[in-house]
Amino acid sequence: MTEAPPPSQRKLGTGMLILAWAAGLLLAAYWFSGVEERQQNPNQQPESLHLDNAVEVRLEANRQGHYVVDGQINRHAVTFLVDTGASFVAIPAELAEKMGLERGRSFMVETANGTAPGFSTRLQSLRIGDIELHDVDAGIVPGMGGDGVLLGMSALRQLDFSSRGGDLLLRQYQ
């Protein structure tokens, strides 16, 4: 017959089991948080295709049918939401301040929540994958919440864009 382990070993074994479960739960939470983030923004590292006379970036729609993509404004990392209904690139005021964007003339902006004040600004560069635009008109919108930047027509009109099979294809001719 085998003897029961001493109480100190049982406590150690129980403690190790609890630690193993806690570590497993933390790893699962970490993994699932990445899955959720990838579902919200499936274009975190957009790939570029270099053609003879163009650079092409293909964006996948997220679960809500929106095109969200990571990019850069003046070498600062941002997340864009493609919005063909927006006249210009719209940047939340807090984010614009962090990036050091200068506020220009004030103007009124029509948003889904009504009319709000905004300020004009110019972006030295805007980048999505290997597509890079220069001297882009934009607006700083104080009432806009979050860190997401609306990628509006002041940038999109400089590109050829089309929708194919649920993907959005951006093309910059060189």
Share of helix among residues?
25-40%
What is the general shape? elongated
Uncertain stretches of 5 or more adjacent residues: none
By CATH, the architecture of the largest domain is named: Beta Barrel
CATH fold name of the largest domain: Cathepsin D, subunit A, domain 1
Please give the radius of gyration in angstroms. Answer: 24 Å
Termini separation = 83 Å
Structural class: alpha+beta
Quote the beta fraction.
35-45%
- Return the average pLDDT rounded to an integer: 88
Please indicate the count of domains.
2
Q: Major sheet, described briefly? A: 7 strands, mixed
SSE string, helices as H and strands as E: HEEEEEHEEEEHEE
- Report the total helices: 3
Strands, count: 11
Multimer state: single chain
